From TrEMBL:
Pfam families: Peptidase_S41. Keywords: Signal. SUPFAM superfamilies: ClpP/crotonase, PDZ domain-like. This is Peptidase family S41. PROSITE patterns: PROKAR_LIPOPROTEIN (PS51257). Gene3D superfamilies: 2-enoyl-CoA Hydratase, Chain A, domain 1, 2.30.42.10, 3.30.750.170. GO terms for molecular function: endopeptidase activity; serine-type peptidase activity. InterPro entries: ClpP/crotonase-like_dom_sf, PDZ_sf, Tail-specific_protease. Coiled coil: none annotated. It comes from the Bacteria. GO terms for biological process: proteolysis; signal transduction. Residues 261-412 form the Tail specific protease domain.
Length: 544
C-alpha cells in the first residue's frame, strides 16, 4: 500500500485481549463538532444520547485562570453540575468507545463522577476468561500534563517490579533512574523491600504506612526503607522524594562477541524525549559496524506510536520500509473512514524516516539514521506493552526477523486518546492496531517459542528476568540467552527458570508469621504511570 509519510502521529495506549465484538444497540450522535450552549434541565433518558459537546466543559467545580500546559490559555471550564460531567462521559463513550454496544446504560444519578466513568466499559470476558477491558482510567489533568510534557515525575527514581500485593508481599528493584535519589543512595537492581518506615512490608497489614512510603504525595518527604540485596546484605536507607527526570534510553553499548559486534540499548519508554537517545544509539551502532542488535524492552510500557515507527525504521532501513505500512488504526463500526475525535480521514501510520518535532507535530527535514538489519533481538517481560508490542508487530509485518528473548508480553493492541474534561483526563479504549499483514490479535501477548505455530508466537526463547545482574551485563539471563542464540541459532540448553531467579530473592530474614487474607497495598505509582502515561495514546494533531 502506498502511503504518505505525513500521516498523522500517534502517541501510545494500554489494553488487553479479544477481537472487536459485533456492535449494535443504543442510538448515538456524531462527535458533536458544534459550539456548545449552556445545557439546562439535564436529564437522563435510557438509550438516548445527546451530542457530547452539549455537555463538554460544564463542570461542578470549574477551573479558573490560565493553563500552563496550553500556552497559558484560559481554562475552558464553565459552571455546571456533576450530572453535566457524567452526561458528557456517557455520550463520549457511546460515540468513541471501541466496544460501545457492551456498555450498560445505567442511570448516572446513582454514581459519583469517578464511579460512573469506571463502569462505562464492557463487562465481557475473553475466551480465556480474562476481562476484555482491564485498563480504564482517569488521572488528574495537571499531573498527566506535567509528566507527558516535561518527562518529570515525583518519587524516588525506582522502577519497582511487583510479585504480590497481599501478604506475603514481594517488591523488587528493577532499575533506578540516573542521578535520582535512589541511584544516589546506591540502591541496586534486585534489592527486595523488607521494611518501610519500620513496618514489616512482607506480612504487615499496616497498609497506610506502606502506601505512604511507596507513593509519597509530594516532594521532600523522607521515608525509611530496609532492603535485602542480591548478595544477602541488608541495608537501611532514608530516601527523600523529589522530581525525577526520566531517562528513557539507557546503557547503550557495543559488545564484542564471536559473531561480531552486538549493539545493546535499554529502551524504557516511547516518550518523545527518547528520540535523541535512540538516534545516538543507532549512530553508535553504525559507527562500530554491529552485526546484531538487542533492544531491551523488558520494562517498556509503551508510548508514542510515531516514535515506535521511527525506531522500527532506524532498525530496518529504506529498502524494507519504503511505501510500507507500520500500523493501521481501526475504530468502532461507527467510524470506518474518519477519526471520531479529530474528524481526520483515517490513514495508515507509515515508517517515519525523518526526525519529528513533537512539540508542533511536524516532520523535519532531518533524515533518521538506519542500520538496514534483517533481524533484531528484543528482550521482553510481562511489562513490555503497547507501543513496544507495536514495534515488534510492525517489523514482523514487513518480514523483519524478530527474535524474542524473555517472557510473554502484556498483550495490549488497543489504544486511546487522553481526553480532558473539568480537570480530569480520561482514558478509554477507542481503537486497535494491525500491521501491514493485517495482524493485530495479540491480546494474550507475544509468546517466545523455539518453534512458533501461531501468529502471536514469536521465534525465540522463554527466559525469566534475571535480577541478579545489572541490565546490559552480558551475563544477565536475557541478554546472555540472546548472545547464545546468535552463536548457536538455538535457545540455551540451561535457561534461567523463575525458580532459579527467585531462589536467592525469596530468602528473607523476616521471621514474623504471614497474615492470611491480608490487606493489599496500592500498586506503586510507576506501574500505574506505565499504564496511563506510556501506553498507545493518539495525539490530536496530524504531522505536517
Amino acid at each position: 500500500m502506498l502511503i504518505h509519510k505525513s500521516a498523522r502521529i500517534y502517541l501510545l495506549s494500554v489494553f488487553t485481549l479479544s477481537l472487536l465484538s459485533a456492535c449494535g444497540g443504543g442510538t448515538s450522535s456524531d462527535s458533536g463538532l458544534i459550539s456548545p450552549t449552556t445545557p439546562t434541565n439535564v436529564t437522563w433518558v435510557a438509550g438516548t444520547f445527546a451530542p457530547e459537546n452539549t455537555f463538554k466543559d460544564f463542570c461542578s467545580n470549574p477551573r479558573t485562570g490560565s493553563d500552563p500546559f496550553n500556552q497559558n490559555q484560559a481554562y475552558p471550564d464553565k459552571q455546571g453540575t456533576d450530572l453535566h460531567e457524567k452526561m458528557w462521559l456517557r455520550s463520549y463513550s457511546d460515540n468513541s468507545y471501541l466496544w460501545y454496544s457492551e456498555i450498560e446504560d445505567n442511570d448516572p444519578n446513582n454514581f459519583s463522577i469517578s464511579d460512573y466513568f469506571n463502569q462505562l466499559k464492557t463487562q465481557e470476558n475473553t475466551d480465556s476468561g480474562a476481562k476484555k477491558d482491564n485498563f480504564h482510567f482517569l488521572e488528574n489533568t495537571a499531573d498527566y500534563n506535567k509528566q507527558t510534557q516535561s518527562g518529570i515525575t515525583s518519587g524516588y527514581g525506582i522502577r519497582w517490579q511487583f510479585g504480590t500485593v497481599k501478604p506475603p508481599r514481594k517488591l523488587t528493584v528493577a532499575y533506578t533512574e540516573p542521578n535520582s535519589p535512589a541511584a544516589l543512595r546506591g540502591i541496586q537492581r534486585g534489592a527486595q523491600v523488607l521494611e518501610i518506615d519500620g513496618v514489616d512490608f512482607i506480612n504487615s497489614n499496616d497498609v497506610d504506612t506502606i502506601n505512604a512510603g511507596l507513593s509519597p504525595t509530594q516532594n521532600g518527604q523522607i521515608h525509611a526503607f530496609k532492603l535485602k540485596n542480591i548478595d544477602g546484605s541488608i541495608i537501611s536507607y532514608n530516601i527523600e522524594s523529589a522530581d525525577i527526570n526520566t531517562s528513557p534510553v539507557q546503557n547503550t553499548k557495543v559488545i564484542a562477541t564471536n559473531v561480531g559486534n552486538v549493539g545493546y540499548v535499554q529502551f524504557n519508554s516511547h516518550i518523545p524525549l527518547a528520540q535523541e537517545g535512540l538516534i545516538s544509539a543507532i549512530n553508535q551502532f553504525s559507527a562500530q559496524n554491529v552485526a546484531e542488535v538487542v533492544i531491551d524492552l523488558r520494562y517498556n510500557g509503551g508510548g508514542a506510536l510515531a516514535l515506535a515507527s521511527q525506531f522500527a525504521y532506524m532498525i530496518s532501513g529504506d529498502n524494507a520500509t519504503n511505501n510500507r505500512t507500520f500500523e493501521t488504526t481501526v475504530f468502532n463500526n461507527k467510524h470506518t473512514t474518519n477519526d471520531p475525535i479529530t474528524g481526520n480521514t483515517l490513514r495508515p501510520t507509515p515508517f517515519y524516516d525523518k526526525k519529528i518535532d513533537y512539540v508542533n507535530n511536524v516532520l523535519t527535514s532531518t533524515n533518521l539514521p538506519s542500520l538496514n538489519m534483517q533481524r533484531v533481538f528484543v528482550l521482553t517481560t510481562g511489562s513490555t506493552c503497547s507501543a513496544s508490542e507495536a514495534f515488534m508487530n510492525g517489523l514482523r509485518g514487513i518480514d523483519i526477523d524478530v527474535i524474542q528473548i524473555g517472557n510473554t508480553t502484556c498483550g495490549k493492541p488497543y489504544g486511546f486518546y487522553p481526553q480532558d474534561n473539568c480537570g480530569s483526563t480520561y482514558f478509554t479504549i477507542q481503537f486497535k492496531g494491525i500491521n501491514a499483514k493485517g495482524f493485530g490479535d495479540y491480546s494474550d501477548g507475544f509468546v517466545p517459542k523455539e518453534s512458533p505455530q501461531f501468529q502471536s508466537e514469536v521465534k525465540g526463547c522463554d527466559v525469566a528476568d534475571d535480577f541478579t545482574k545489572a541490565l546490559g551485563d552480558p551475563t544477565e539471563g536475557l541478554l546472555s540467552a540472546a548472545l547464545e542464540y546468535m552463536k548457536s541459532e538455538s535457545c540455551p540448553v540451561i535457561a534461567l527458570s523463575r525458580s532459579t531467579i527467585d531462589k536467592g530473592l525469596n530468602k528473607t530474614q523476616n521471621t514474623s508469621k504471614s497474615i492470611d487474607n491480608g490487606l493489599a497495598i496500592k500498586v506503586p505509582n510507576q506501574i500505574y504511570n506505565s499504564i496511563v502515561f506510556e501506553n498507545k495514546i493518539l495525539s490530536r494533531e496530524a504531522i505536517k
